[in-house]
From TrEMBL:
<dbReference type="GO" id="GO:0005634">
    <property type="term" value="C:nucleus"/>
</dbReference>
<dbReference type="InterPro" id="IPR004808">
    <property type="entry name" value="AP_endonuc_1"/>
</dbReference>
<dbReference type="GO" id="GO:0008081">
    <property type="term" value="F:phosphoric diester hydrolase activity"/>
</dbReference>
<dbReference type="GO" id="GO:0008311">
    <property type="term" value="F:double-stranded DNA 3'-5' DNA exonuclease activity"/>
</dbReference>
<keyword id="KW-0234">DNA repair</keyword>
<feature type="binding site">
    <location>
        <position position="143"/>
    </location>
    <ligand>
        <name>Mg(2+)</name>
    </ligand>
</feature>
<dbReference type="GO" id="GO:0006284">
    <property type="term" value="P:base-excision repair"/>
</dbReference>
<dbReference type="Pfam" id="PF03372">
    <property type="entry name" value="Exo_endo_phos"/>
</dbReference>
<keyword id="KW-0378">Hydrolase</keyword>
<protein>
    <recommendedName>
        <fullName>exodeoxyribonuclease III</fullName>
        <ecNumber>3.1.11.2</ecNumber>
    </recommendedName>
</protein>
<dbReference type="InterPro" id="IPR036691">
    <property type="entry name" value="Endo/exonu/phosph_ase_sf"/>
</dbReference>
<keyword id="KW-0460">Magnesium</keyword>
<dbReference type="InterPro" id="IPR005135">
    <property type="entry name" value="Endo/exonuclease/phosphatase"/>
</dbReference>
<keyword id="KW-0479">Metal-binding</keyword>
<comment type="similarity">
    <text>Belongs to the DNA repair enzymes AP/ExoA family.</text>
</comment>
<feature type="domain" description="Endonuclease/exonuclease/phosphatase">
    <location>
        <begin position="9"/>
        <end position="212"/>
    </location>
</feature>
<dbReference type="GO" id="GO:0003906">
    <property type="term" value="F:DNA-(apurinic or apyrimidinic site) endonuclease activity"/>
</dbReference>
Length: 217
C-alpha cells in the first residue's frame, strides 16, 4: 500500500456483547499483530458499546450499527499507526463502513462490509457507488456472503448457483480497479472461511479486494 506496510485482519465475530468476548477478540487480534481490524456482526446497539473496545492496543474505533442488536460493522485502528480521518461514509443498515484517511501520509479508503446472505445485487451496487465517491487506495474487505469463483471457492461445485450479486461484484472490481489479493497470491489454492451445515459444503465468502496500484501485477 504505497510505502505503508500494514497488517489487516477481517473477522465475523457473531456478537461481542460481553466483557469476556471483547477481551478474547482484542487478545486474538493482538496475537496476530493487527494494525487494522475489520469486524463484522458486532451486534452493538449503539456507539458507546463499540467504544468499550478502545483499550490496550486500539487507538481508534469506528462503528456502524442498527438500533437493534444485529449486524454491525467496525474498524479498529492500532495506536502505532499515524492515522488521520478525512471522510466517513456508511449505509443505514449497519452493513457498510468506509473511511477515507491518511495512514503515514498515504491516502487510503478502508471499507468493511457485511453483505446480506441472499442474492441482493443492489447492496454491492451501493458499495461500488460509495467507494467511487472517495479518493485513495482502496482496501475493501469483510464478509461478502458470496463466492467469487464457484469452481475453486466452494468445496462442492454448483455450476447453476451463479448470482446477480456475483455479477455486481465483478462490476465493482472492474469499476474500482480492485483485485482479490488472496487469490492473486494463491491462484489455485482451496481455502474456506465458512461451513454450511444445511448444504454440508465449505466455501470462501470472506475477501480482501485492494487497488491494483497497491500490488505488482
Amino acid at each position: 500500500m504505497g510505502n505503508v506496510d500494514v497488517n489487516i485482519v477481517s473477522w465475523n465475530i457473531n456478537g461481542c456483547g460481553t466483557p469476556v468476548k471483547r477481551k478474547k477478540v482484542l487478545s486474538y487480534l493482538k496475537s496476530h499483530n493487527a494494525d487494522i481490524a475489520y469486524i463484522q456482526e458486532t451486534h452493538f446497539a449503539n456507539e458507546n458499546e463499540a467504544l468499550k473496545l478502545k483499550r490496550d492496543w486500539v487507538g481508534k474505533v469506528f462503528h456502524n450499527s442498527r438500533s437493534s442488536k444485529s449486524r454491525g460493522v467496525m474498524v479498529l485502528i492500532n495506536k502505532r499507526l499515524n492515522f488521520v480521518l478525512l471522510k466517513e461514509s456508511r449505509d443505514e443498515d449497519g452493513r457498510v463502513l468506509a473511511l477515507q484517511a491518511l495512514i503515514n501520509g498515504v491516502q487510503v479508503v478502508l471499507c468493511n462490509i457485511y453483505a446480506p446472505n441472499r442474492d441482493e445485487p443492489n447492496f454491492m451496487d451501493e458499495v461500488n457507488k460509495m467507494l467511487g465517491n472517495m479518493k485513495g487506495q482502496i482496501l475493501l474487505g469483510g464478509d461478502f456472503n458470496n463466492v467469487m469463483d464457484e469452481y475453486i471457492d466452494r468445496s462442492a461445485i454448483n455450476a447453476t448457483s451463479s448470482t446477480r450479486t456475483g455479477t455486481a461484484i465483478d462490476a465493482l472490481k472492474e469499476d474500482l480497479s480492485v483485485v482479490d489479493i488472496w487469490r492473486l497470491v494463491h491462484p489455485m489454492e482451496r481455502e474456506y472461511t465458512f461451513y454450511s451445515h444445511s448444504h454440508k459444503t465449505y466455501s470462501q465468502i470472506d475477501y480482501f479486494l485492494i487497488s491494483k496500484s497497491c500490488v505488482n501485477l
